[in-house]
């Protein structure tokens, strides 16, 4: 197994591999932030890269600036992934046929400093689809702001009424970079069906409930660390009993609540140890961590207010699409004001979840009376894909100028890794 892992990385230098935004890394050196010393092996995520400098967000600590040579992708597979991702972007960015600005700038909810996110579709040259080499199905810029799907993947996602894919196809201002992109826009109605109810509404509500669970766990973590700062002599059993009394479901039997609380505390110190924030995976290290003044965490990434407002926006979009027969992406009036309030963190997550639940009966009624077809037009979508593949083949055989003909990037060499 070890030999296979080494051979898999033979062509990759982890110390020089690209580090896209969000890459999980481990530090190779002892470093400091303010008055805290962070051990070698501390785990974080890349928040910014500028030349040979890397900014890393370390959980419970903050953002640390390091030299590129002082960090490594945390996992072997991740080093391989980021290298393939960078190579694919460099080789295939010229094959993008459709590009769309999505997110807050498309929804009329952008503010100063808002990101500009691009989504769209690319088409592989003929040689990339003919051999044994693995076919890229996604292109992603290093900073994560631009993501494109290969047309086959985009079509399958759109047939499932995937919200991100349908948004990229239908947001006003979608730019066709090639006639093949124009064909896709002309046929985009083929992908629409009343399945938007399930893919948008059910997804949004399920994700809001997950956010609620994440918020509950984050609150538990704050309580546990605060109690340990106040009383470092408290035992694991005492902390679990207090957490069960103050934060676990009141309807749960007391013994079961204490058992659940105790398991949560254990999961907390295991997680912090995995992130190299605790020297040992035990309760004593958790106490020392709290006593050192640590544990004042930023909200988890998934609990950023923008996630909650985006999910509620999906529900509004689904309702408009079902009722009107076409999507309305830009928020206006009272709806826009409400979404802004949620985005700025002025509305409690529980209130957002309740609002989402209140929308469901109207959504169900809209699903029953909508003019949208019951199913997408699979035959029409299939004809589109065949047309695109034949066009790519024609340009390749004719050696026409461009990335699908004479100037097509060479495909990667095929490789074979036996099963361990």
What do these coordinates show?
With 420 residues, this protein is of the alpha+beta class. It has 3 domains: 2-74, SH3 Domains (SH3 type barrels, Roll), CATH 2.30.30; 83-191 and 377-398, no CATH class; 193-375. The chain has 14 helices and 12 strands. Helix 8 crosses helix 9, helix 11 (305-324) runs antiparallel to helix 12 (333-343) and helix 11 packs parallel to helix 13. Mean pLDDT is 85; it is low at 1-11.
Q: Could you provide a short overview of the structure?
A:
48% of the residues lie in helices and 13% in strands.
Reconstruct the topology from this structure.
Blueprint lengths: L1 H7 L15 E4 L3 E3 L2 E3 L4 E8 L2 E6 L3 E6 L3 E3 L2 H17 L3 E7 L1 H4 L9 E6 L15 E3 L5 E5 H9 L3 H8 L4 E2 L2 H8 L9 H35 L5 H12 L6 H21 L8 H9 L13 H20 L8 H11 L5 H21 L8 H21 L22
Parallel strand pairs: 9-11
Antiparallel strand pairs: 1-4, 1-7, 2-3, 4-5, 5-6, 8-9, 8-12, 10-11
Helix pairs in contact: 7-10, 7-11, 7-13, 8-9, 11-12, 11-13
Spatial order of strands in the largest sheet: 6-5-4-1-7
Distance between the termini: 6 Å
Rounded to an integer, what's the Rg over CA atoms? 25 Å
Strand content: 5-15%
Tally of DSSP β-strands? 12
Number of helical segments with 4 or more residues: 14
Average residue pLDDT: 85
Helix fraction bin: 40-55%
Features:
disordered N terminus, 5-stranded mixed sheet, 5-stranded antiparallel sheet, SH3 type barrels, 3 domains, 48% helix, single chain, 13% strand, 14 helices, 12 strands, alpha+beta, 420 residues
């Amino acid at each position: 197994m070890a030999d296979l892992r080494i051979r898999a990385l033979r062509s990759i230098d982890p110390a020089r591999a690209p580090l896209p935004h969000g890459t999980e890394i481990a530090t190779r050196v002892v470093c400091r932030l303010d008055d805290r010393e962070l051990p070698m092996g501390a785990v974080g995520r890349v928040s910014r890269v500028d030349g040979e400098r890397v900014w890393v967000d370390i959980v419970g600590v903050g953002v640390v600036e390091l030299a590129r040579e002082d960090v490594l992708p945390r996992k072997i597979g991740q080093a391989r992934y980021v290298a393939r991702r960078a190579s694919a972007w460099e080789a295939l960015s010229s094959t993008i046929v459709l590009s769309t600005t999505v997110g807050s700038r498309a929804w009329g909810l952008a503010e100063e400093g808002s990101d500009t996110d691009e989504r769209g579709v690319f088409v592989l040259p003929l040689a990339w689809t003919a051999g044994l080499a693995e076919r890229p199905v996604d292109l992603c810029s290093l900073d994560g702001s631009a993501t494109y799907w290969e047309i086959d993947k985009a079509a399958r996602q759109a047939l499932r009424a995937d919200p991100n894919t349908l948004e990229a196809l239908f947001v006003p201002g979608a730019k066709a970079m090639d006639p093949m992109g124009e064909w896709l826009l002309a046929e985009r109605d083929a992908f629409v069906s009343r399945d938007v109810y399930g893919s948008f509404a059910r997804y949004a509500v399920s994700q809001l409930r997950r956010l609620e669970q994440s918020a509950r766990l984050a609150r538990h973590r704050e309580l546990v660390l605060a109690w340990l700062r106040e009383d470092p002599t408290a035992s694991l059993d005492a902390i679990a009993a207090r957490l069960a009394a103050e934060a676990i479901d009141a309807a749960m039997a007391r013994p079961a609540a204490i058992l659940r609380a105790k398991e949560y505390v254990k999961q907390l110190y295991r997680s912090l140890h995995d992130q190299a924030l605790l020297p040992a995976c035990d309760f004593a290290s958790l106490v020392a961590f709290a006593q050192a003044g640590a544990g004042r965490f930023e909200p988890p990434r998934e609990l950023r207010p923008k996630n909650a407002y985006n999910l509620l926006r999906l529900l509004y979009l689904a309702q408009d699409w079902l009722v009107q027969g076409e999507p309305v992406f830009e928020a206006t009036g009272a709806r826009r004001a409400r979404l802004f309030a949620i985005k700025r963190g002025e509305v409690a997550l529980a209130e957002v979840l309740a609002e989402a639940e209140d929308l469901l009966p109207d959504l169900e009624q809209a699903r029953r009376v909508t003019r949208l077809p019951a199913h997408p037009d699979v035959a029409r979508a299939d004809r589109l894909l065949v047309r695109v593949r034949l066009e790519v083949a024609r340009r390749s055989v004719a050696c026409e100028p461009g990335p699908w003909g004479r100037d097509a990037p060479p495909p990667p060499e095929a490789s074979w890794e036996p099963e361990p």
